[in-house]
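Q: I'm writing a short methods note and want an example of a predicted protein-small molecule complex. Could you take the sequence and the SMILES for S-adenosylmethionine and return the bound structure as C-alpha cells? Please keep the output block clean; save any remarks for afterwards.
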Amino acid sequence: MLLLMTDLLATTQAAYDAVAANYARDVPERYHSTPLAHAMTPLFAELVIAGGGGLVADAGCGPGHVTAHLATLGVPAFGVDVSPEMIALARKAHPDLRFEVGAMTALPAADGTLAGVVANYSIIHTPPEGLPETFAEFHRVLAPGGHLLLGFQADDHATRVGEPFDHSVTPAHRYSPDRIVALLGDTGLTEVARLIIAPSEDTKRGFPQAYLIARSRLIP
Ligand SMILES: C[S@@+](CC[C@H](N)C(=O)[O-])C[C@H]1O[C@@H](n2cnc3c(N)ncnc32)[C@H](O)[C@@H]1O
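A: Understood, no commentary inside the block.
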C-alpha cells in the first residue's frame, strides 16, 4: 500500500510537471473568470477570519492562484504541491508568497497550527484507499475549530466509494459529497456548508462539482 501510494505520487508529479506551463496559462484565468469556480473561497476566508484568523495551507496548490486569492482576501496562505514545475511557476507568479514542494500527506506544519487547509481539485488524484490518510493529515495540522475547503468533481452515487474518470492529466476519481463528509467525520472534521454545481454547467464531462467546507471539532 505504501509503495503503491509512493508510485502514484511519482506518477502525479511527472504528469503535472509535463503540463505545468499550459495549466498555469489557462486554469488561473478560468478560476477568476468563472464565478462558480471561486464562489466558496471568499466564504471560506471569512470563516477563517471570523474564527480568529491564522495561516492557511493550499494543499496541491498548482500554480498558486487560489493561494494568492486567499492572500488578497486577508488570509495569509502558503502553497504545497508535489510538482516542482508547478511550484516554480507559483513562485514566479506570486514571488511574495511561500510555496513548497511536498505531499498532501506530509504538510510542512506542526500539529494544530493552521487556521485552514484548502484542497482545490487535488484530492481527485488520491484513490479511495488513500483518502483516510490524507484527511487525517488535514486534521492533524488544523487547530481546533480550523476550516477545510475541498473542491472536487462529484459523483451522484452515494453508494460508490469513488468513480475513476478520464482526467486529461493523470488518473483521477470523482467522489460522492456524502461519502466525503462521512470520511471527514471519521477524522474529526464536521461539515459546515456545501455548494453543488449542476452537471449542466460542466460542458466537458457533465459532472456535478462539489465544494465542501468542514470544521475541525473543538473536542476531537
Ligand atoms: C487539478 S490540479 C489543481 C491545482 C490547483 N489546486 C487548482 O485549483 O487549480 C491538482 C494539483 O494537485 C497536485 N497534487 C495531486 N496529488 C497531490 C499530493 N498527493 N500531494 C501534493 N500535491 C498533489 C498536483 O501536482 C496538481 O498540481
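A: Remarks, as requested: Helices lie at 2-33, 35-38, 40-50, 65-72, 84-93, 131-141, 177-186. The domain at 2-216 is CATH 3.40.50.150 (Rossmann fold).
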